[in-house]
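Readers outside the structure-tokenisation community will struggle with the description of the input data as it stands. What matters is that the chain and its backbone geometry are given together, residue for residue. For illustration, here is how one protein appears when written out as sequence plus structure tokens:

…
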Amino acid sequence: MIAALCRDGSNLTAVLAVIPVRDGVVPAGGAETADECGGRSLVIGSGTVEAAPAIGGIVSIAEVGTYRPAAWAAALAPVLAAEAIIVLPTSPDGRDLGPRLAAALGRPFFAGAISVNSAQVVVARGGGLSMHTIAAPAAFVATLQVGVRGVIHHRDPAQVTELPLALGDTTDIADAPHANDARLERLVDPDPASIDLSEAQRIVGGGAGLNSTAQFDLLTEVGVHIGASVGATRVITDRGWVPHERQIGTTGVVVDPQLYLAFGISGAVQHTSGLGQPDHIISVNTDAHCPMMQLADLAVVADANEVLTHLVRLLGSEATGG
């Protein structure tokens, strides 16, 4: 058993991140979860060899193919029985596999944690409006909120070992209470307009510099053209122009996209603190010196309303071949 340290420095002899992956893609929060567990993780799914370097640290890989949470939980339970603390990311697969694994192990489950260690678990409740600190039991399973911790980028390259797992047949729900894996009939690409912002790879965001709800209709149209989700600042959601689940920031949704386009967003700290580490930021604002423009890879000094109107026209003409 390999000792590890949580971020608070407490000594843990059995703490492990379990990170489900599909086709080698590490889910949002995967690397963060590994860091919360001292860089010790089990990567399970398809394309695990490709995913391991993006996580780093001490990595066991279980190449088990298509996502089958009931089968995975049943196979993992005896293997992970000696691990006192198991943490998964709050990606869709992590939120699904986590409680199944807890049930298979007969342990308490803590959903939506923002901090996990051997002494206590801090969980977010009420949409992040309240935090609850719970004394940690001897053994438990938890999911870690995306974006609450950050990632240590200087971690050593992954030390990878293989973990063979034999999966039983859990496609027939009559076999056993836990045997309730669904059969995949068809895989549908996510709709950027409705995907959870925390999972979006491209986001177009609007702030107080956009002067009407009509501008957010245009923002949505841009999102459709480039496959991006729509987000907003708190001032916009407070006005009721955009639903609160589309609010980006420490009091909204913490995101970590590859591309973030900010229209009329000045960049208050509550907003920028929830942006994660986008690969690319493009900002459009009349104030060349506002925080968002300082963060941007490309800063366009212009009226965001006018730029948005012209951008929609340009994208529309390209779509029609004009």
User: Anything to note?
Assistant: The two ends are 63 Å apart (CA to CA). The CA atoms of residues 26 and 193 lie 22 Å apart.
